[in-house]
Amino acid sequence: MVFILVIVVALVAWALHLMQEAIQHREFSLMLAGFLVSSSAAALMAVYFLMGNYVGYMSDMTQRAYLSSEAPRVVEWASYHDALVEDLINLSLDPSSETINLAR
């Protein structure tokens, strides 16, 4: 954070210097350059805050995924599904036993 803050302060100082030179020399190009430099400083801060929020959101999502109460239900369904698939495979291999145990 401190490094980005130093960069932004340096960009703003440079922009102010360019704009001051533009006023002294009455040059539009220096004023435009100062505006572009100050815009880049603002964009750098915007991207920093947006990425900070995004990284915080993603790290919160990973913690929420580990602590979710839905995980045991998914495991139960997966084990039930695996047992059903095994019964179907056994039925296809041994057609004499025509029952599938659905009450697991």
> Which residues form runs of ≥5 with pLDDT under 50?
none
Share of helical residues:
over 70%
Strand content: under 5%
The strand count comes to 0
Name the overall outline. Answer: rod-shaped
Into how many domains do the coordinates divide? 2
Question: Distance between the terminal alpha carbons, to the nearest Å?
Answer: 56 Å
Largest sheet geometry:
none
Order of helices and strands: HHH
Radius of gyration: 32 Å
What does this structure look like?
The protein is mainly alpha-helical and 104 residues long. The protein has two domains: 2-68; 70-104. Helix content is 83%, strand content 0%. The chain is built from three helices and no strands. It has helices at 2-25, 28-66, 71-93. It is rod-shaped and about 100 Å long. The model has no long low-confidence stretch (mean pLDDT 78).
Descriptive labels:
mainly alpha; 104 residues; 3 helices
How would you sum up this structure in a few lines?
This protein has 3 helices and no strands.
Layout: helices, strands, pairs:
Layout: H1 2-25, H2 28-66, H3 71-93
